[in-house]
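Checklist before submission:
- one chain only
- standard amino acids only
- sequence pasted in full

Submission:
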Amino acid sequence: MMKLTITAGDLARTLRLAARVVERKNTIPIFAYAALTVANGKASLRVTDLDIELRLDVPAMSLSDGAVALPVRSLLSLVKEIAADDLITITYARETGAHLVTGTARYPVATLPEAGFPEMKLSGEPTAIVEFAEPTSLARALRTCLPFVSTEETRYYLNGCYFDLSEPQAYTVATDGHTLGRTTVDCTVNRRKAEDNPSPIIHTKTCRLLIDLPITGRMRLYPTALHVPFAGGDLYSKTIDGTYPAYRRVYPENRDWSLTIEPETISALKAAVTRVNLTVNHENASHYKSPVGLVEAPGAVVVAAQVNDLGSKMKDTAYEVVSAATSLRAASFIGGFNATLLLKVLTTARTDVVTLHSKAMGTDSQERDYSGPILITSHDGEFLIMPMRIEPEATGAIVSLTQRLTTNTRAAA
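Returned file contents:
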């Protein structure tokens, strides 16, 4: 008869981690279960969804060998209702089934045969071994890039973070086609063959696990999978089979124009973008989201958007002036952006100072090419945002408004 004893708190922590792999709805019952194995004086729990497999050490005592598959979420729901310091004993025998015993209580637990539980097997030698300078460096990079991962199933190769190992400097990269995030990862890569480029596309679900797991600082890469040991277990995951886009091609080749925004300006700019966007793209507006324009002006950044009044058929401009340290003598249009995406980028760049970069048009660096992407750099990483097209009439109206505002401001001063 299989038997193990464990505190309710330790079992709950183990099951919570296992539950992150188990989907809430499963058409195949075995994927809602975890294989619990007791052998050679150790207990382990194994859970999988066929793309990810998590093997967890179970800190149990009073062990008797055996194996059985137990339902993860229903068992977790029961264990959470037991005091964390209370001892729990789980027993299993083929004739009597599985039971959870604590104090004077005894609960039967559903089971499936452990022999039929699927196992992820990695074939061959790893193509590369990645050693991280700090165990948390990968988690920090993935946390920064994760908001930019695409959820479109048609472009499945964007449904994860790209771990770019093609250059001496490693990066994590994610893009949804409209915005992009890239962050450096301090690591060394030991390739089996010098010419190999083992850069994997890591599933979003795997990324979320890697962010929270206490990894030991090493990742083994295989042609179609990866293996990451961590304190208390091992994570195995398939990688996304596809070719990641050549994202470097959209980076501004020349960064002739730049605008540095200080911390207090960032907060005010985000608030201004939110308010102007609410005015233009309210709940009764069309499904098309009007872009919000940014204009650099002497001593300020102006957030503005054209508003179409459906009743009077008149066009007006919503705007807000944000004080900023700029060096311009005349208003200059930066670009039009989807407000939600712009706020996502500014929020992800959490550091004190961010800098906007773009290439210039012609010989005058004040005449920017606002059809190209804007590169936003910060201590947290680099971020790209693609502009939205604004009608020339609206662009001219916004710039003219900004010039009038700044002229009036200087006159008043």
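Reviewer check: The first strand starts at residue 2 and ends at 7.
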